[in-house]
């Protein structure tokens, strides 16, 4: 079954989506969108490094993303704001990476494959790395889930419960570095952030709890991967960008659907007045 | 004694926020910390919950100490869906009955299935209080719990707090700006401005010169007399304290 490149591509996409969904939720909740983006861009330097040293791309990328994450956390708050530092480091790393790749002689490198992903070329070994990384991220985030949530909600409440917000931040940073490293093959460095953020953002209006949001984001990611793969196969379009197009389309469609539902609800409420009294959220009943 | 701080210095970055703080919290007492903005009130609370480690001095905690902490503000990001029920179970799962009990005790029994970011300021404070009660604390630390509430909301909140203390017999340390309400509810007032300027019974602190200077009151007795009413009818569980006299620390 794994001999079919389409099956391997689908499995790779599903693996990345599963890991990206809960992590993407945290990226959205903690307003780390730019952090995800910057980490992904810096990964290009990792690609260049590993090609130059003939090590697996996964290892080089992981090293660079981790280095950047640690440097940014150490330096931020001194003389530059976090986003300024990220901008400096991410784009410098991306540019240095692109220049470094051009120096590499003897290797013909398809740069596009790293910028936009090459999911159709996923081999059995890649698949093992992707699923290994994805499972590791799921275990990390799953194991620390409640602590991460509380630290996200309020650092002081977390400390009062014996949770170190810094440690939780580190867990997220590590998980983010791993996801970036495994997702390069699927969507490339320029589109990884889309895979993190858009499914989570799409899931938000339909979720009552953080767990529901992560689950819906995962389902959206998996669906978009399969639909994007099928679409790119039939339309002969680049696969990574097609997957992101599907996620973006879902974001727009589901948001429209949600506002349509709300409008209909409001209309029904006006037509049947008794409905309004069933909404406890609208009355302040805490006063005694 | 639940918790005792001896000569604590707290530094954040290079700035010394608290200097030689010594205080004791005894079982069942209400202690209020007052002080101008930036006087280190929140830092003191965070030090007591262990979120900040003092650079010098010792913090002695009784083995039976169980702290419930209500933070100054809880900003809930619009992007994070969170029901009250789920929030109360962070970081540990709790039986539904415990959750309902805590909510009732905090006067928020009907809020279980609401979204956190749909709550009003007063409702959110009650939910935070309920969360602090879940660990059956013998010391409640509240950081300006009535900030942003109107007069009625503030009065309601303090009434709830007073009922709670009588029921649970827990000590309460609270930071507040509401001089009037605060003074008449507390057993002891600590006046803070980087260091403890004075502490003692509310009426004594209220009449001290340090206090008047700190809050820009011109010392006419009428204003301060308001702060203490004499219906001292509630049961006090406090032991007599050795620390009732006023310390003028400059």
From TrEMBL, chain B:
Q: Which SUPFAM superfamilies match?
A: P-loop containing nucleoside triphosphate hydrolases
GO molecular function annotations of the record: ATP binding; ATP hydrolysis activity
Q: Name one GO biological process term.
A: response to zinc ion
InterPro entries the UniProt entry points to: AAA+_ATPase, ABC_transporter-like_ATP-bd, ABC_transporter-like_CS, Metal_Ion_Import_ABC, P-loop_NTPase
| PROSITE patterns the record matches | ABC_TRANSPORTER_1, ABC_TRANSPORTER_2
Tagged with keyword Nucleotide-binding: yes
The reply to whether Lyase figures as a keyword in the UniProt entry is no
Q: Where is the ABC transporter domain?
A: 3-218
Report the superkingdom from the record.
Answer: Bacteria
Q: What keywords sit in the KW lines?
A: ATP-binding, Cell membrane, Ion transport, Membrane, Nucleotide-binding, Translocase, Transport, Zinc, Zinc transport
* Protein name, UniProt field: Zinc ABC transporter ATP-binding protein ZnuC
Q: Which gene encodes it?
A: znuC
């Amino acid at each position: 079954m794994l001999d079919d490149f389409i099956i391997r591509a689908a499995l790779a996409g599903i693996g990345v989506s599963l890991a990206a969904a809960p992590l993407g939720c945290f990226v959205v909740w903690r307003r780390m969108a730019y952090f995800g983006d910057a980490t992904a861009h810096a990964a290009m330097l990792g690609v260049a490094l590993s090609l130059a040293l003939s090590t697996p791309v996964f290892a080089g990328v992981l090293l660079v993303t981790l280095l950047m994450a640690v440097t940014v956390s150490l330096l931020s708050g001194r003389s530059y704001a976090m986003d300024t530092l990220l901008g400096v480091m991410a784009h410098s790393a991306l540019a240095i990476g692109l220049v470094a790749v051009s120096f590499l002689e003897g290797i013909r490198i398809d740069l596009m494959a790293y910028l936009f992903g090459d999911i159709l070329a996923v081999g059995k070994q890649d698949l093992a790395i992707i699923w290994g990384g994805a499972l590791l991220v799921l275990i990390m985030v799953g194991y620390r889930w409640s602590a991460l949530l509380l630290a996200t909600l309020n650092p002081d409440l977390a400390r009062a419960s014996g949770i170190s917000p810094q440690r939780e931040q580190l867990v997220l940073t590590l998980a983010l570095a791993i996801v970036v490293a495994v997702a390069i093959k699927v969507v490339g460095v320029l589109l990884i952030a889309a895979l993190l953020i858009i499914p989570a953002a799409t899931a938000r209006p339909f979720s009552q709890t953080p767990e529901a949001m992560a689950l819906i984001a995962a389902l959206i990611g998996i669906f978009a991967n399969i639909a994007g793969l099928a679409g790119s196969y039939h339309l002969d379009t680049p696969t990574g960008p097609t997957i992101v197009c599907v996620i973006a389309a879902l974001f727009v469609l589901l948001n429209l659907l949600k506002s349509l539902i709300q409008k209909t609800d409001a209309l029904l409420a006006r037509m049947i007045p008794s409905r309004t009294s069933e909404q406890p959220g609208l009355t302040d009943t805490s006063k005694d | 004694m639940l918790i005792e701080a001896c000569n604590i210095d707290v530094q954040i970055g290079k700035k010394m926020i608290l200097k030689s703080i010594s205080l004791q919290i005894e079982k069942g007492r209400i202690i209020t910390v007052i002080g101008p903005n930036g006087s280190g009130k929140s830092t003191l609370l965070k030090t007591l919950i262990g979120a900040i480690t003092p650079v010098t001095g010792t913090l002695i905690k009784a083995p039976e100490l169980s702290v419930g902490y209500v933070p100054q503000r809880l900003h809930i990001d619009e992007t994070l869906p969170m029901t009250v029920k789920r929030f109360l179970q962070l970081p540990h799962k709790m039986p539904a009955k415990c959750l309902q009990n805590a909510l009732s005790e905090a006067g928020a029994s009907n809020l279980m299935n609401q979204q956190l970011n749909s709550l009003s300021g007063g409702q959110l404070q009650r939910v935070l209080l309920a969360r602090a009660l879940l660990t059956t604390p013998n010391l409640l630390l509240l950081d300006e719990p009535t900030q942003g509430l109107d007069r009625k909301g503030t009065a309601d909140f303090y009434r709830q707090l007073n009922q709670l203390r009588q029921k649970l017999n827990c000590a309460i340390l609270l930071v507040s700006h509401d001089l009037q309400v605060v003074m008449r509810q507390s057993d002891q007032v600590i006046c803070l401005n980087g260091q403890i300027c004075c502490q003692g019974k509310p009426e004594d602190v209220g009449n001290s010169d340090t206090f008047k200077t700190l809050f820009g009151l011109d010392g006419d007795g009428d204003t301060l007399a308001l702060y203490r009413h004499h219906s001292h009818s509630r049961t006090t569980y406090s032991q007599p304290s050795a620390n009732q006299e006023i310390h003028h620390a400059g």
